[in-house]
Design a protein that fits this description.
Blueprint lengths: L9 H22 L5 E5 L5 E4 L2 E7 L14 H11 L8 E9 L5 E10 L4 E8 L3 H8 L20
Parallel strand pairs: 3-4
Antiparallel strand pairs: 1-2, 2-3, 4-5, 5-6
Length: 159
């Protein structure tokens, strides 16, 4: 669909991919098939909810999130405080899905991250399985074969 002759470049393709992803998540949430999925903020700051927990996604290196990625929306922080309660565990905590792409825009890796604060201290780093075998098992809801998240020494348990 991209047309370099008409002026499409990495930026315009990235904008289209972001818009497409937002739309698909919004449609899935509104369709009601996944009771655990909802949308908190449908604007360009797009925040969706996984079982009430706010999550955002970005394209880029999971190991080096940008300052922009580490900015937390007020509604996102408020929702996380509601989910985790007043235990203080929500302070500065944010959840992100990093979508790493190749030169042609193809998805190379997706990583689920729990980050804390303006520096983005990593509390959880979990590469999401993308292979066809992993996807078919996930559909059957048998997560026993998935590798556990990689947590840092400073990670905490939230329940």
């Amino acid at each position: 669909m991209a047309d370099p002759w008409a002026g499409d470049d990495a930026w315009s393709i990235g904008c289209r991919a972001y818009s497409f992803s937002r739309n698909r998540l919004r449609q899935a949430a509104e369709g009601g098939r996944y009771r655990w999925l909802a949308v908190l903020d449908a604007t360009h700051h797009f925040v969706f909810l996984i079982d009430g927990v706010p999550v955002r996604f970005f394209r880029g290196d999971a190991e080096e999130p940008s300052k922009r990625t580490l900015r937390q929306q007020e509604s996102e922080a408020q929702q996380l405080a509601l989910v985790l309660g007043d235990a203080g565990g929500a302070d500065g905590l944010m959840f992100r899905l990093a979508v790493e792409t190749g030169e042609g825009g193809e998805v190379r890796r997706v990583v689920f991250l729990a980050l804390r604060g303006e520096e983005g201290a990593v509390e959880c780093f979990w590469p999401v399985p993308l292979g066809n075998d992993d996807l078919s098992s996930a559909r059957r809801n048998t997560a026993a074969n998935l590798a556990p998240p990689l947590a840092t020494a400073s990670s905490r348990r939230f329940s």
